[in-house]
Design a protein that fits this description.
Blueprint: E1 3-7, E2 9-11, E3 21-23, H1 26-34, E4 38-42, H2 48-57, E5 60-63, H3 87-103, E6 107-110, H4 112-120, E7 125-126, H5 129-132, E8 152-156, H6 161-166, E9 169-172, E10 179-180, E11 187-192, E12 198-203, E13 209-212, H7 224-237
Parallel strand pairs: 1-4, 1-5, 5-6, 6-13
Antiparallel strand pairs: 2-3, 7-10, 8-9, 8-11, 11-12, 12-13
Helix pairs in contact: 3-4
Amino acid sequence: MPLIGIPSYLDTSSPDKMPARYAASRPFIEALTAVGAAPVVIPLGLSEQALHEIYSRLDGVLLAGGHDINPATYGRAMHPKTEGVEPMRDQCEIQLAQWSLAEHKPLLGICRGVQALNVAAGGTLIQDVNESVPHAIRHQYAPEKSRDYVAHDIDLLEGTRLASIMGHRARVNSFHHQAVDTVAPGFRVSAYAPDGVIEAIEHVNGTFAIGVQWHPESLIYTDAAMRALFETFVAQAS
């Protein structure tokens, strides 16, 4: 059973004013366990040595959804609509992604995770799709829609690894306002939304390093292609 590491996020919602806690969203954990993996939640703020000790025992890394990445990490100024920046999470995820890419350890990035993966490899982000993409469709359905609400189609590009897993067309849920802008060196686009927003990227050299902009963890019980993505990731980590 492969060990899959999931970096946590900083939860400051405690009503009794206790110190912030490190947390992870259940759907990512449940999706991994459903396809035979053992998830490991990674705390933030560790020394590089301690983080690497955890990393070295992992068979794969999943970068989960969450708030926005600090644009300083990709050389941009802060946009007024960029929110929820967590420097410790940025540092942890970027470091884990860079180690994974260097050592060809399987990696799956979801929503914020595809953005973290792209930044870690040298790419940049669109900080607000509505302001930056002409004729953008709606991409942010939180909080009024449930996480399994299917919002729009995507087209997966022929010849990509992702298309070999999921097929050439999919219906996806959508809960983001940022997206990949300049694709990192060594990566290629593997899916687009109807408005041209990048919906997925993947490494070009055979390493299993895939990032998707939607939330497949919330669709694995209703869409075989979404489950296949998790199954393939875990199989690569086995």
